[in-house]
Structure formats: structure tokens, C-alpha cells
Design brief:
Elements lengths: L6 E9 L5 H6 L2 H6 L2 E6 L8 H5 L3 E7 L5 H12 L3 E5 L1 H4 L6 H7 L1 E5 L4 E8 L14 E7 L2 E4 L4 E8 L11 E11 L2 E6 L11 H14 L2
Parallel strand pairs: 1-2, 1-3, 3-4, 4-11
Antiparallel strand pairs: 5-8, 6-7, 6-9, 9-10, 10-11
Length: 222
């Protein structure tokens, strides 16, 4: 049943077209509307400097790969999250954005480094100790053929799902490495949700990915 709008969500999309920011985010606009959000779409970063308007949003969904962000814009976004506005996103739209901004990287808790082999078959599995978290409850593991993100992260993240990189004769790393694939982060009063999955819009249609992404958006919201 569609709920009466009571919360506000801002979708900020743009940057590199290779991640299809419009097509990808349009998959979730109806979902947010059905869950009681009034949704506004913005295709530039200037909204981040409007502190009053930004603070009225309960959730920011960002899909903006690469690009540059000004100090004023990233400070505005960070302050909004610290005050309780949620931040959520997937793949390069959140962890391959604004590489030159240390404050942004600290806010999201991770940075894309590489995806060895390009499009590869790999498994994503829920971290056993976090299996009860509402974002991943009932999910276990699944296989997918897409980019496998190797991300650099810090210890403040609550890692909900992971992926394993295995060495072979052609790789420079010589032992198995488990990387975070989905995590959350508390930043001040705000919540941050990051999923590294979603290079192509079709990746977001895979049932467990769709489930955890939708749950992540709701979890991050104020």
C-alpha cells in the first residue's frame, strides 16, 4: 500500500555517464515514493551548499561517479549528515566520487581502488556475524558477473557483506583477500549506507542486490 508522504528524499545524480546515473536512480524513485517519501531529483551539486533546504531532507541518495566537489559543497553535505540526514548510494556513484576530497572520503568511509579483471564471476556473502542486521537479514550469498570492487576502507565501518579476491599466477597479490562489499557508517547523528554493487542498472535488479539496496535506503534515512 502506498503511504502518504511524510519524509523527504533528495536524489543527486550526475558525473560519469558510464554508470547510468539516471537509469539507475529511476529504479528506486517509485520505491521511495511508495514508502512515504517526497522525492526531489537534482542533477548538479549546488544543492549541497543550501544548508537549510538540505537539512529538510531525511535522505540523500547520491549517484555521482568521479567529478569534483568544492569545499563548500562537501562541507554542506557532511554537516547535513552530521545533523541527521542519511546518505546512501551504490558502486562508483558513492565510492568513486570526488577522489580529491579528503572530507568526502572520510564521510563515506571508503574509496574505490580497482576492479581486477574487469567483469568477472564472483561471490558476495553476508558477514556471518552481521547476518541479523536488517539490511541483510535472510540473505546469505549470491554469485554475480560484474565488476568486483576492491575498496580501501577504515575500521569505523560496519561491514555487512564481503567479497573474496583469490590470487592466481597473474595477480600481484599472493593470498586470498576479503574486501568489504556493503557497509554502513554512523556519522554524527546521520547514517551512511554504501553498497559497492551496481556497475550497470541490471546489476541492481538481481534479487538480493535489489533487496539490500532498498533496505539500505530506508535504514539510512532519518
Amino acid at each position: 500500500m502506498t503511504q502518504s508522504p511524510s519524509r523527504r528524499a533528495l536524489v543527486v545524480r550526475g558525473g560519469w555517464d558510464g554508470h547510468a546515473p539516471v537509469e539507475a536512480t529511476e529504479r528506486f524513485v517509485p520505491f521511495l515514493s511508495d514508502h512515504g517519501f517526497t522525492v526531489e531529483v537534482c542533477e548538479d551539486l549546488e544543492m549541497y551548499v543550501d544548508a537549510e533546504k538540505l537539512s529538510r531532507n531525511d535522505l540523500v541518495v547520491q549517484c555521482w561517479t568521479q567529478g569534483e566537489i568544492t569545499e563548500e559543497q562537501v562541507t554542506g553535505l557532511s554537516n547535513a549528515v552530521r545533523s541527521g540526514t542519511g546518505l546512501a548510494g551504490w558502486h562508483g556513484g558513492i565510492v568513486d566520487a570526488f577522489r580529491a576530497s579528503p572530507e568526502y572520503l572520510q564521510l563515506t568511509g571508503g574509496q574505490f581502488a580497482t576492479h581486477p579483471g574487469g567483469f568477472v564471476d564472483h561471490e558476495v556473502f553476508v558477514a556471518p556475524e552481521r547476518a541479523g542486521h536488517p539490511i541483510v537479514a535472510g540473505l546469505t550469498s549470491w554469485s554475480q558477473h560484474t565488476e568486483q570492487y576492491w575498496s580501501l576502507t577504515d575500521g569505523l565501518n560496519d561491514v555487512l557483506a564481503q567479497t573474496r579476491f583469490r590470487p592466481d599466477e597473474g595477480t600481484p597479490w599472493r593470498q586470498e583477500f576479503v574486501a568489504p562489499a556493503v557497509w554502513t557508517r554512523q556519522w554524527g547523528k546521520g547514517r551512511v549506507f554504501v553498497s559497492t554493487i551496481g556497475h550497470a542498472p541490471e546489476d541492481l535488479d538481481l534479487a538480493p542486490v535489489r533487496t539490500l539496496t532498498e533496505r539500505g535506503l530506508l535504514w539510512a534515512s532519518r
